[in-house]
Please model this.
Amino acid sequence: MPGERKPEKYQFEHVKQIAHETTLRSGHHIPLLIVQGSRGALMASPTELPSTPEGRQLLLWRMGFELSSDGHIGELEEIFYISEAWMSTGEQDDPPANPPSTDPKRKEILLIASQRTDADQAQVAIFEMVRGDQEQLINLEEIVFPTSEEEGQTKSQFLERFIAGFQEGRQIRAAQLN
Model:
């Protein structure tokens, strides 16, 4: 239809820049999902994140399932996730022995990730949150990990759970309409 506006699409680099600026300005970032569909986008913030990886994956699946039911965003194209987290690092032959939550050498990070439904690769940016003496955020330093071509072809299990929930919800909705 002439004159019809197509929804603006979020781009990873732009989301990364906005998350970076927002975190520096406020000193923190709430967990945030940006869901991009063929008809538009929406943002959702989980009110409480479960403490286990399995619990967080189940939460993402449920959110995907619920967001698919109204059909407002159309077909799912990409999902972005922004959150603070802890990270532990080790050496290649000596991975961290403890989970980040109990590692005294853990780093506080800002994580920005995206997964397209038509791609085999997630995009991820990680920034170490550098705090001053009074615990105020004074800088975000990007952490860059060397990756091989093979390692770069992975999907985010976390975001894949949202995609799976969304797709299952769409299938159920389609079956109910028939």
